[in-house]
Each structure stands twice: as C-alpha cells, then as structure tokens.
TrEMBL record, chains A, B:
Keywords, ordered alphabetically: Isomerase
Protein's name according to its UniProt entry: Sugar phosphate isomerase
Keyword Isomerase: yes
Alphabetized Pfam families for the sequence: AP_endonuc_2 (PF01261)
Organism encoding this protein: Streptomyces yokosukanensis
PANTHER family: HYDROXYPYRUVATE ISOMERASE (PTHR12110), XYLOSE ISOMERASE (PTHR12110:SF52)
Length: 277, 277
C-alpha cells in the first residue's frame, strides 16, 4: 500500500465543526487534497459556491454523502425520496465527484419486514441508476453495521449490498466499504474480493471501533488506531481486490467535534501516516 | 406452534428485581413452570438452596446463564476462565438443567485479532465439552449481536457459532438462538436449519429490538411485541428445524427493571400469549 497522503481523503463529517471555507483552508495547511462532502453543509454554503471553493482550493471531492432512505412503502413518501435522490445525483455531478454514497433507510414505522424493505431499495435503484449514469455519477450502496438495521439501514452486510448492486451495471451501482460497519464480519473479506472483481468498490472509508458505544450509537466512531480494527488489514483487502481510489476517513465522534477542527484534521493525517507507514 | 405456557420459560434477568423466592412465588401465581437462571443470583441465594427452592416450587430450570469469556491469551487468565466454566457446568447439573449458555468473550485488551480469539474458544470447548458431558450438561454457544464483537463476544453469527460447535459432538456443544442477536442476519434462517439438522439448537431465547439503543447497548432489549422482530417467524424457523424445547424470554431493560417484577412477569406472559396466539 502507498504511504503518504496521495490516497487520503478527509470526510467533512470528521471535522464538522469547520465551516466550508475553514475546511478548505485547513486542508491546504495539512497537505490534504481530497475531501468527502455531506449534502446538508453543501446546501448551507451553497452548491455552486462549494464547487467553486473546492476547485479554487485545488481540492478533489471524493464522495458526496448521502442519498438513500429508499424504504418507504407509501407512494407519496417514495416519490419524495426518489426526487431527493435525483437532486443528490445532480449535486454530486456539480461538485465534480463521481460517487454518491447511499444509506438505504430503515424499516417503515411498524414494519418487521427486512426482506421487503431491501426489495424496495432494488426498485429504487432501478430508477436511480440510469439517472446517475446520465450525470456520470456512481451510486455506492453502503452496508451499515447491523445495529442500525431497524432505524437507518436494512442493508447490513457487504453480501447484501452486492446482491442489490449486481442487479445493475457496475458503473451505475456499487458499494461503499466502511471498516466501522464491516470489521466484525468474517464474510467481508471474501465479499470485498467479489466487489473488486466486479469493479464495484466505489468508496472506501475508515473509522475505528471503540466502546462503550454512546446512547443512540451514532457518534462513537473511533479515531483510526484507537480501536479494535486492523486498518492495514482492511486496506490491504480492498487493494488486493484492485481498489486504487481514495481512502476516506469518516468519523462521527462527539469528543472530536468538541475540539479544534484543524487540530483534529492534523491528528487524523498523522494517524493515517502512522497506521499505514 | 403451540399456544399456552407449556413451552414458555422466564429468564430470571427479565425480572431481576425479584429475589429468588419472589421469582418462584411469582411463577406460581402466573402459571409459569420454567425458568432460566443466572449464576450470580444463584450464588447469592446459594446453589443448593436455589435447587431446592425450584424443586419445591415445581419449577424446571431451562438454562443456566452463563459460562464463557474464553478468549484470554495469558495462561493464568485462561486457566482461571476454564476453572470457572467447570464450576458453571457443575452448578448447571446441581440445578437440574441440561443447558449452560456460553458467551464467548471479547478481544483481549489491545488485540485486533477476531480470528485468533475464536480459535481460543475452540480450544477451550475441547477441554470443557467432555467435562460437560460427564455432568449431563450441553454447552450452548450464543452468538451475540455484532455490536458486542469487541468487548463481549467475538462470535457474532449463528454460522460462526456452528463452525465452532460442529467440531464437537452435539450432546457436548450446540448453540443458543436469541432473536435479539440474529434477527438482522439474512443467513440466520438457513443456519437455524443447519443447527436443527445437527441437533444443536440447545436454547431458544426471545427479546425484541427497539431503538434508540442506550449508552453501552446492554440494557435496551424490548419486551416481545414492542420492536422490529417478527417473533412468530423466528419461532416458526426453530420449530421447522425440529426444536421442541423451551421458549425463554430474556430481557435486559432498565425500564422493566424499574417496575414491579410480578407485574413485568404477568405482562411478559400476556405478551407471549398474544404474540403466539
């Protein structure tokens, strides 16, 4: 694997305390050339203004997070979700990234039907895939850890994500491999091979697993190197599967967010160096 | 599936606010004839006293929870864990249950090696299996939800639990199927079939999945019927696989523990009736 920062990308959520211009400036100071962005802060700063800011700062946008939430049963809610995902595709194209990360969505209220929810995602991908292709954007279905299966993402494993993605061309639909979500899964290494063979690893993200998990289990992702996940092993797996794209660090962590964002970015860069040296 | 309480067992942890005699009395009042016990309250009340109390109350002990925590690398810690598990086997035999539930244990401090930890469990089962057989006790390896993989249980799926169990005779080592831990897993139905075909479903436990998860994610299990899990489907799966044993409700829930234990037991019985009617 390559040392240095050529492959590194900082996901904006890791340093969400930074405004968009602060993020661009901090990247310049730290030698970071790639960023993953989120829709809400992009919309807040303005889509075209963000695209210009990133261009002017020499920053490449590696992913836009996120589309998805495609499990509604009610026709009106489903139409709203599809329209929102079409906008997300257009936003990704405007930002110059070729990758839109999709978080599938959880069970509709009162439902216990994981299988039906996964089928509705497939139906939605059939509509969104061609739209993404027209914009030069690839959809990257992200399996989330099974602890999110009911309320955020009914796609819990890489195998499930690939079962969905492989119904469509690889340039339309692939997967996101995030260490935080797949590290526990002894099937994941083989599934990474499957994804790589099909050209479907569209994004690779790092976060470490630390405990105890916080209430709601959203904002307890560990700085890389702090937890139970062997980052070198997982990076080695995606690279052995042929992946040569960005390695994005995406942390949701209340403690990191309480600190100075530029310091957190510098720490993340340093950890990236030390973990992969 | 059979309605009525013939198959029902109340795991003591569901109503841990009840003392051992209160538990026995409450079971009598509610028509409950089977209980799953935990080692700590048994030891507190006294092993032989508990066995006598249960016998006198006409209660069958369906499981003893729990042995395990077998992932230590350090020889002294490993010897201590094995000795403790031998005691747990003897306790199970004294209580008259044929089933000791095993929670494997998490990663040793600083380790990132899930595979090595699972192999150490296999080594421990090779020592404990014959001991269990001599006492007429079966070890029931319980996969815990992947959110516990680092700190409590490196065995996260039924497939992994069966990969371990099948190295040994079924009358020595099988698995525990707990809806809370496996409900998200699309491989679990097939693995239940595999377990049943091998005569390795040694325990079946119910808890429902509700969100948000509490800090530490230990004590947020939902009353059956309150969450995302289709209890009828899972009971149907284990019964289709040939399981005819107890259906034990095991809830860890701070809100339930804050209420009157007899009321919680009565509610649990009523839910069991309504979910399976």
């Amino acid at each position: 694997m390559t040392a240095g920062l050529a492959r590194f990308s900082i996901n904006q959520m890791t340093v969400k305390q930074l405004s968009m211009p602060e993020l661009a400036a901090a990247c310049g100071e730290s030698g970071v050339t790639q960023v993953g962005l989120w829709r809400a802060p992009v919309q807040e700063y303005g889509l075209r203004a963000t695209a210009k800011l990133m261009r002017d700062a020499g920053l490449t946008v590696t992913t836009l997070c996120r589309g998805g939430f495609l499990t509604a049963t009610e026709p009106q809610a489903r139409a709203v979700a599809l329209a929102d995902n079409r906008r997300a595709i257009e936003e990704a194209a405007t930002l110059g990234t070729d990758t839109l990360v999709l978080v599938s969505g959880g069970l509709p209220a009162g439902s216990k039907d994981l299988y039906g929810a996964r089928e509705r995602i497939a139906d939605a991908l059939a509509e969104l895939g061609p739209c993404a292709e027209r914009h030069g954007v690839r959809l990257a279905v992200e399996p989330l850890h099974p602890m999110y299966a009911s309320d955020r993402c009914v796609v819990s494993t890489l195998a499930q994500a690939l079962d969905l993605a492989e119904r469509f061309p690889a340039h339309q639909v692939g997967v996101t491999v995030d260490t935080y979500h797949v590290w526990w899964d002894d099937q994941a290494p083989a599934q990474i091979g499957r994804a790589g063979a099909g050209g479907r690893i569209h994004a690779f993200q790092l976060a470490d697993w630390i405990t105890p998990l916080p209430q709601g289990v959203l904002n307890g992702r560990g700085q890389i190197g702090d937890g139970a996940i062997d980052m070198r092993e997982w990076r080695g797996l995606v690279e052995a599967a042929g992946y040569t794209g960005p390695v994005e660090v995406e942390l949701f962590n209340d403690e990191l967010w309480a600190r100075d964002g530029r310091e957190v970015l510098a720490e993340t860069v340093e950890r990236f160096h030390s973990v992969f040296q």
